[in-house]
């Protein structure tokens, strides 16, 4: 085994043990020439994963190449062993899915999902290169989005772990975005009773009121977009799984309540997202038909709500869902793209904005 420090081939094993994933052997080695110590992992050969690149070509999944890419973006707070564990998780997830081929873009998204939780600085550095961010406003939005989603993940974990529930993986928290709190609690405790659901909901809301609402800020570009929509005569509604009173407080605090014609919360309709009720109520209040409407959101629940209500749907890729959802009619990466999509000739007239389409926390 070649020494990574001096290139010497004479190295020896000084410790061997099973790695945390149970699928590999971790060996500590020392170089006989320079005495540098380093770690290697031995894994059994299994079915090879093919990576579909953006140009249509395919190549074999290369752990070393991915580790090098992450390492170049990594901050000092992300050790080599942590990068190895991250790739272990990623590779295990791909193999467990049963697919033999995966788009390179999805691998990048899986890396970002894990970096967001482990090391925010490494996440941003990797994101800048991976997504080719060249606009300062886009970078500000990315930073704000990272702060919001980490805070939401932290709040939801606190509500669960405080009562002995299992820790929720970052990507699992993302999947729950837009759904009612009951869904999160039942994931942690499948047999939870109605009394405990209500008690935990109150506890979560107390934390949300104290931490999340004061931290809510507008994305750079959001205010301009809302004003542009307003000036062209578009009617706008905000619908959220949170309480209507919370929504009103946020809109008023951000100074954009006058730009929103209707705001509805999870307590404004019989069924929460992804049921169509909130979108349908908003359309009724705005006196528009589904054919005239567009639902903008960042979560699967937002898009499912819009589709089931018969509206055109646009997914924004700066929230929890960083990969295009198959059910969305369109996906946009910038506020400029969103304005163009909504204001396109012959496009939908009123705009029903899912809460995360315009807000961040």
CATH class of the largest domain: Alpha Beta
Unreliable segments of 5+ consecutive residues: 355-361
The helix content is: 40-55%
What count of helical segments does DSSP give? Answer: 14
Content-based structural category: alpha/beta
* Biggest sheet overview: 6 strands, parallel
According to CATH, what is the topology of the largest domain? Answer: Rossmann fold
Number of strands: 14
What coarse outline follows from CA principal-axis ratios?
elongated
Rg result: 23 Å
Counting structural domains, the number is 4
Could you give the distance between the termini? 49 Å
Element order: H for helix, E for strand: EEEEEHHEHHHHHHEHEHEHEHEEHEHE
* CATH architecture call of the largest domain: 3-Layer(aba) Sandwich
**The CATH homology group name of the largest domain:** HAD superfamily/HAD-like
The chain-level mean pLDDT equals: 77
- Strand order within the widest beta sheet: 9-8-13-10-11-12
How would you sum up this structure, described in words?
This protein has four domains: about 1-45; about 50-130, no CATH class; about 150-215, DNA polymerase, domain 1; about 215-360, Rossmann fold, CATH 3.40.50. About 45% of the residues lie in helices and about 15% in strands. It is built from 14 helices and 14 strands. The protein has helices at about 65-75, 80-95, 105-120, 120-130, 135-160, 170-175, 180-190, 195-215, 220-230, 245-255, 275-285, 300-310, 335-345, 355-360; strands at about 10-20, 25-30, 35-45, 50, 60, 100-105, 215-220, 235-240, 260-265, 295, 310-315, 330, 350-355, 360. It has a six-stranded parallel beta sheet with strand order 9-8-13-10-11-12, with helices on both faces. It has a three-stranded antiparallel beta sheet with strand order 1-2-3, with no helix packed on it. A three-stranded mixed beta sheet has the order 5-4-6. A hairpin with a 5-residue loop joins strand 2 (about 25-30) and strand 3 (about 35-45). Helix 1 crosses helix 2 (about 80-95), helix 1 (about 65-75) packs across helix 4 and helix 3 (about 105-120) packs antiparallel against helix 4 (about 120-130).
């Amino acid at each position: 085994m070649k020494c990574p420090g001096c290139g010497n081939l004479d190295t020896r094993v000084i410790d061997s043990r099973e790695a945390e994933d149970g699928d590999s052997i971790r060996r500590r080695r020392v170089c006989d020439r320079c005495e540098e110590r380093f770690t290697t992992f031995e894994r059994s050969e299994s079915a090879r994963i093919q990576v579909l690149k953006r140009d249509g070509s395919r190549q074999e999944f290369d752990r070393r190449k991915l580790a090098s890419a992450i390492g170049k973006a990594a901050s000092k707070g992300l050790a080599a062993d942590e990068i190895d564990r991250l790739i272990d998780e990623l590779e295990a997830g791909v193999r467990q899915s049963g697919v033999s081929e995966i788009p390179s873009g999805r691998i990048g998204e899986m890396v970002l999902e894990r970096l967001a939780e482990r090391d925010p600085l490494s996440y941003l550095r990797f994101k800048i290169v991976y997504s080719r961010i060249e606009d300062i406003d886009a970078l500000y939005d990315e930073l704000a989005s990272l702060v919001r989603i980490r805070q939401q993940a932290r709040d939801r974990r606190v509500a669960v772990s405080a009562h002995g529930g299992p820790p929720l993986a970052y990507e699992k928290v993302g999947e729950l975005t837009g759904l009612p709190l009951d869904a999160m609690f039942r994931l942690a405790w499948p047999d939870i009773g109605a009394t405990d659901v209500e008690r935990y909901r109150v506890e979560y809301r107390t934390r949300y009121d104290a931490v999340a609402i004061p931290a809510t800020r507008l994305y750079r570009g959001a205010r301009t977009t809302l004003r542009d929509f307003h000036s062209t005569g578009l009617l706008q509604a905000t619908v959220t799984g949170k309480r209507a009173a919370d929504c009103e407080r946020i809109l008023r605090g951000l100074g954009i309540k006058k730009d929103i014609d209707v705001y509805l919360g999870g307590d404004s309709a019989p069924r929460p997202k992804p049921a169509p009720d909130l979108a349908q109520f908003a359309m009724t209040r705005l006196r528009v038909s589904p054919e005239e409407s567009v639902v903008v959101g960042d979560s699967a629940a937002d898009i499912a709500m819009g589709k089931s209500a018969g509206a055109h749907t646009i997914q924004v890729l700066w929230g929890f869902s960083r990969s295009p959802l198959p059910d969305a009619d369109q996906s946009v990466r910038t506020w400029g793209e969103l304005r163009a999509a909504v204001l396109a000739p012959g496009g939908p007239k009123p705009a029903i904005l899912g809460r995360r389409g315009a807000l961040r926390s």
